[in-house]
Amino acid sequence: MHKWKAKKTMIIIFSCLGALLIAALALLLILSGIFQQPKYLEPWQKTYAQKFDDPRIRLAAHGLLAANGHNMQPWKIRLDKNNPMVFYLYADSERTTNEVDPPARQMMITQGTFLEYVKIAGDELGYQAALELFPEGTYNEQTLSNSMKTKPVAKITLTKTKPQPDPLYDFLFLPDTNRAAYLPTRLTTAEIKQLQAINTDPGLSMEIFQDQKNRDKLSGYAMQSATIEAGVSRVMKETEVIFRANEYQKNKYRYGFSVEGQGTAGIMRHLMQGLVTLFPSLNQGKAASDMFIKSTRTSVNNTPAYALIITKDNSRSNQVKSGMLYSRLILTAQRLGFAMQPLSQALEEYPEMKEPYSGIHRDYAPDGGTIQMFVRLGKPTQEVPPSMRRDVMDLIATQP
Fold this sequence. Notes:
alpha+beta; NADH Oxidase; five-stranded mixed sheet; four-stranded antiparallel sheet
């Protein structure tokens, strides 16, 4: 009799625990917003751009998919009122990341990534895009924010032509950054030549390193700079502010970071989002710093090659051009079956980063050039989901 009562009690306990577990999982999924329609992913659909009759908006919808610093998507478009084939690109000064990018160098690279996507989409759709950088002159560096508002980065003039299918076009719709581990497979000589051949600008150079000595040295810079950044609270806070914990926030803001940036997908993404929503400290302070260092270590320990984009000078125009080259590098690498991830920290220009910044430039740009991009490159071990994107109409402004 007593054994039967004990068994019955255990059944009740396990039933209660099971019910509590189911309730907890359900709560996490609800907090994650699992039933929310992800509007922030709509721009990744090829049909998205097709719904716009204006070719300028249609091409801007492609540019919106380009790589950009901190996923801030800091682009503004002004449509020319007098010429339906002309539009202007402005850097959105309201979307700067001043702690990690005080001189707005990364901001200018981001303008270039957008422009290259526009050019490739234009060729594919039958609109040749002629670019004029800084058509109204370069910025007044003393009043940089105001200059960004009043001076366009580029004037884009479209000419209707016969569509010229571009082999890179389909890759516009793939995520540009993969932070997961890469296979140890090295690039072949032919693959390196194909990647290096995309650079035709004498003011820019691109170097690819996969020998052990340079891999160790560049991995060292990546780890040193990540450790420094993780210890600078104001920088980590800047990232924390634009973290979107759940589907509700992602649909509201449509820019910034989220858990899938680390490759978390499927049901695990929703469980993680629910946990971070319920316990924000999981992605703040020391927890966030430790996670960032751990993620960087995993990345560099599983990287067969690195690439650097270097400019002869650090002019605004060359910063933009380096972004254009970076877009073409991403797309060409994807076409060859490779993935990429920028390791921006060692190139950032805030005081605490002075030592690795000086060191990497001393070793890899000894003649006074500027390293604009430092990326890891390799065959991916897993696919990653696309990141949030704003609605293209949010980029359109009638005034600069």
